Amino acid sequence: MTALGVYRPGNTVLHRLSPGTKLVGLAVAVLAISLFVRTLPALGIAAVAVAALYALGGIGPVAAWRQLRPAIWMLLFIFVFQVIFTGWHRAVIVVGILGLTVILAAVVTLTTRVTDMLATITRALSPLARFGVRVDLIAISLALTIRAIPLMVEIARAVDEARRARGLRPGPRILVAPIVVGALRTADGFADSLIARGLD
């Protein structure tokens, strides 16, 4: 399994855009999808637009699918919940919006170096330092968050491989509990590392 949002070097239109432009564009796109996608035709148009964006970034369908695959279990759970309580039509729209949001965020990280992204965010937040805000700590938090994404994907992959090795059927109890435990252990490791560096 390819880790979510791992930078892919390139010289496409998206690669050449500044990180700030891409982050603002991501925020606008996610807001627009959340506000205006209310029907299946609108969802289809949004999906075509996102597919065109991936084409601009030189990212093929296989790589795009790898970005969505780690979220499939969560999306399936939400889909079933929505079908039960609101109906299939609403379920498709809700899950579609969430899926498009995930792969929109992924196209930014696929075409932007993490260091460039963090530098841009730090510069944007630097005026807050006048008011006593620890911008450096915010940058560290963002770096840890971005680093945690592929780690969580790796944890999910390891749990799923262990489940297959034991011949167990996939299910919430089999998959969710070990993933949560693994995530908590990872968080403890992060906390210990930060405390050791005096950032408690």
TrEMBL record:
It is a multi-pass membrane protein. Signal peptide: none annotated. It is found in: Membrane. It comes from the Bacteria. One of its GO terms (cellular component) is plasma membrane. Pfam families: CbiQ. Keywords: Membrane, Transmembrane, Transmembrane helix. The chain crosses the membrane at residues 23-56, 68-85, 91-110. This is Energy-coupling factor transporter transmembrane protein EcfT. The lineage of its organism: Bacteria, Bacillati, Actinomycetota, Actinomycetes, Mycobacteriales.
